[in-house]
């Protein structure tokens, strides 16, 4: 075994005995020089994506503002998989910055640039600079359900109770 192979840690999917999909990544011109998505720890579920705003032209999100921040990449997922764009918990906890549509779904047939819809819920301006980690991408399997129209549904203990019916 090579010294490189001995140093590599198993990934989460490999640890669970699953085969991870291959996601093809196309770097767009505005993404030149930026790191591709990567997992920061061996068992991380999400890989960080970076802001592809122009060098020297940071984006300033004022409190309450939202913006679709470019990442400079497009991806091709295999059939049966999706990507979910999620907020970075550190940005949310420390600065009040999150994703408006969390998680944002990226379908296997989408080929456009990935963007992160950030919103500033904090009290201060939030500055996004080129290369900042702005979101995390989670790759997950997808099932497309079959829908069958019926006259009645089976009875359950919960029934039609919803929106807080099970307590606070």
UniProtKB/TrEMBL annotation:
EC number: 3.6.1.23
Catalyzed reactions: dUTP + H2O = dUMP + diphosphate + H(+)
Pathway(s) where this gene product acts: Pyrimidine metabolism; dUMP biosynthesis; dUMP from dCTP (dUTP route): step 2/2
Entry similarity comment: Belongs to the dUTPase family.
Protein name: Deoxyuridine 5'-triphosphate nucleotidohydrolase
Origin superkingdom: Bacteria
Keywords, in A-Z order: Hydrolase, Magnesium, Metal-binding, Nucleotide metabolism
SUPFAM superfamilies per UniProt: dUTPase-like (SSF51283)
Composition bias, Basic and acidic residues: 1-12
UniProt binding sites for substrate: 88-90, 101, 105-107
GO biological process, one term: dUMP biosynthetic process
Residue numbers spanned by region Disordered: 1-21
Lineage: Bacteria, Pseudomonadati, Pseudomonadota, Alphaproteobacteria, Parvularculales
UniProt source species: Amphiplicatus metriothermophilus
Occurrences of domain dUTPase-like (ranges): 35-167
UniProt-listed InterPro entries: dUTPase, dUTPase-like, dUTPase-like_sf, dUTPase_trimeric
Gene Ontology terms, MF aspect: dUTP diphosphatase activity; magnesium ion binding
Enzyme class (EC, first level): hydrolase
Record function comment: This enzyme is involved in nucleotide metabolism: it produces dUMP, the immediate precursor of thymidine nucleotides and it decreases the intracellular concentration of dUTP so that uracil cannot be incorporated into DNA.
Gene name, Swiss-Prot/TrEMBL: dut
Cofactors (names): Mg(2+)
